[in-house]
Every structure is written in structure tokens, then in C-alpha cells.
From TrEMBL:
It comes from Xenotaenia resolanae. Keywords: Hydrolase, mRNA processing, Nucleus. It comes from the Eukaryota. The lineage of its organism: Eukaryota, Metazoa, Chordata, Craniata, Vertebrata. This is m7GpppX diphosphatase. The keyword Kinase does not apply.
Length: 332
């Protein structure tokens, strides 16, 4: 499976973002479909030349490669797809085995599966910017402590200064149904409490074990957790309730099997909520970055200005411009 993606700038994100925010297709790419005919997909990487491996993970079976397609910088993300239960019979019946070791009751084989059961999910970012390359490069991370004053004096000015490069035009393409309209699971058009729920590009949608959906709110003036107050409770409650209902209806997955949360810092500054299957070690779901939506709602019910006054902690990568601002202010 291959996904060719448009250029999208990134914001302050931690090392866990390495595979977390793949780039969305261009709006003119047949409404965001995996469009194009088979020969086009086969030729996408025919001219790709490798410059370096930015990072990889044997455990997650993923690799990030920097190189060029023609004269354009590109980043290619290669990720082995999970083994699906419904394909086991065909896998066992159609595979070849080569013995590597046998000892008593234990045998080790090299299994060669049929090609269609041995796919590599591929995301192509082209043309890739320097920010994309840095995003996927393995780097050290630092935990930052941000007070409400730090947010006003350091973080918010940084976001405002970077506003042009941090805009996520692909988000508006989705909200306006210029892209990925066929992938939408739930669409609430209300301008105040409405949102669009659709699969994240990190999920290949072939099994629910690694289910990952994103709810993008229709309000365009909410950048992050810091902007939330009690006036946003109807919006958050609607996303929480309707999102879970839609997932139950579409994927037969009950609320008790879902992890619903927001990131801080987010990878792009338009409020969105993550829905992942409980038990799936989803990228960025650690306590240093993820805030359960149920907790967010309860905190705002208790204190209407909770997130405008609270000290928050989050990780930043070594090359992040926001981390540099915190260092310059003597806050790291």
C-alpha cells in the first residue's frame, strides 16, 4: 500500500511523532483517494535515490528514509503491515518455508508469504522540506515544564511567529470535503460543536487491533489544549459521545475498548482528538504528551479556566525551535 502525500509543515512535536503524522494527500488528487492507476503507483519510487536512513525501529518494523525523487527532496516511510487473522488460512496454505534450525520440539523457519500478504505500507513526502527531514530524524528529547506565563511569553509568540508555516491546509481540505470525503466516518456540520471523524493515515484500516481515527473540530480558532475553557464543553462532549457512537456503529468497537485523547504540544495547531484502540501502543499515547478527553472535560467542569492556568509538561526534540526559546528564556 502506498500513500503519496503533499507538503505539510510541522510544529513542536516530540520524538514519538516519528511515524505519527503522515502527510495527507493533495486536494486535487481525486478527492484524496489513493487514486491513479496501478502503473502510476508502481512507478512512484522508480527514480528514488537514497541519501540516508533518518531512523528506524526493529520493534515497530518501520524505517524513515531521506532521498530524492528526480530533483526533489523526499522522505519515504516504510512500515510492515500487521498480520491479519482473516488471512491466516491463506498465509499457511500459500507460503513457502525454509528450515533454519531444529532442536527437539522447536523449529525455526524463514517464511516466504504470498506478495499480497507481505505488503509494506509506504508514505511518500515529496517535496520534503528541511522540517520534514528533521522531524523523522532520530533525536534526543527533553521534557519541558510550561507555566501559564511561559505559554503567554514563550510558546504563544512562537506559534504566532510561525503561523504561516504551521498552517495545516490539508485540515481545511477535509473539513470542506475537498479531500478524503470518501473516508469520513462521521460528519457533524454544526459550526460550534461539529467535527469530522476519519481514519488517520497511520492506520491501514485492515484490522481493528490498531484502530486509529482523528476527530477534527470545525471551529478554526482553537489551537490546542491551552485555548480550551468551559465554553467549549458542549463541543468536547459532542466529540466524545458522537465519536464513540460512530466507531461502535462502523467498527463494532465499544467505548470500553477506546482510548480518546488530545496531544500537548500538538503536531498541528487546529484542535483535534485521537481515537485509538485500547491495547494498541499508539504513537504519542504516553503520559508525557497525551491527555484523556474524559479528564479534560472533567477538569473544565471543575475549573472553567483549568488549562489556561495550569502548568503543563511535554517533550520537545533537540532541534525544535520552541525548545530553543525555552533555553533562551532560562526555562530548561
Amino acid at each position: 500500500m502506498a500513500t503519496v502525500a503533499a507538503k505539510r509543515e510541522i510544529s513542536s512535536a516530540e520524538n514519538d511523532e516519528l511515524s505519527r503524522e503522515p502527510k495527507r494527500p493533495k486536494a486535487d488528487d481525486k478527492n484524496g483517494e489513493e487514486g491513479g492507476n496501478e502503473s502510476e503507483w508502481e512507478n512512484v519510487l522508480s527514480t528514488f535515490t537514497t541519501s540516508s536512513v533518518l531512523s528506524d525501529s526493529a520493534r515497530e518494523k518501520i524505517m524513515f528514509v531521506h532521498g530524492k525523487i528526480a530533483d526533489h527532496d523526499a522522505v519515504v516511510v516504510l512500515e510492515k503491515t500487521p498480520i491479519r487473522e482473516d488471512s491466516l488460512a491463506e498465509l499457511f496454505r500459500g507460503s513457502k518455508l525454509r528450515l533454519e534450525l531444529r532442536n527437539d520440539i522447536y523449529s525455526s523457519y524463514r517464511l516466504q508469504a504470498p506478495p499480497h500478504l507481505n505488503e509494506i505500507k509506504t508514505t511518500v513526502v515529496c517535496p520534503a522540506t528541511e522540517k520534514h527531514v528533521k522531524k523523522y530524524k532520530r533525536q534526543e528529547s527533553f521534557l519541558v515544564e510550561e507555566t501559564s506565563e511561559d505559554y503567554r511569553s514563550i510558546t504563544l509568540p512562537y506559534i504566532q511567529e510561525q503561523s504561516l508555516s504551521l498552517q495545516a491546509s490539508w485540515v481545511y481540505n477535509i473539513l470542506e470535503k475537498k479531500a478524503e470525503a470518501d473516508k469520513i466516518v462521521h460528519d457533524d456540520a454544526d459550526p460550534e460543536v461539529g467535527f469530522v471523524l476519519l481514519p488517520d493515515l497511520k492506520w491501514d484500516q485492515k484490522q481493528v487491533d490498531d484502530l486509529y481515527l482523528i476527530a477534527i473540530v470545525r471551529q478554526k480558532d482553537i489551537k490546542s489544549l491551552r485555548d480550551l475553557s468551559s465554553e467549549h464543553l458542549p463541543l468536547l462532549q459532542n466529540v466524545f459521545l458522537r465519536g464513540k457512537e460512530a466507531i461502535l456503529q462502523r467498527y463494532n468497537l465499544p467505548a470500553s475498548k477506546l482510548r480518546v485523547y488530545l496531544h500537548y504540544q500538538p503536531s498541528y495547531y487546529h484542535l483535534h482528538v485521537h481515537f485509538t484502540k485500547l491495547g494498541y501502543d499508539a504513537p504519542g499515547c504516553g503520559v508525557e504528551r497525551a491527555h484523556l478527553l474524559s479528564d479534560v472535560i472533567q477538569n473544565l467542569q471543575t475549573d472553567p479556566q483549568f488549562y489556561k492556568s495550569r502548568t503543563l509538561h511535554f517533550p520537545l526534540r533537540a532541534d525544535d525551535g520552541l525548545l530553543r526559546r525555552f533555553k533562551e528564556a532560562g526555562r530548561l
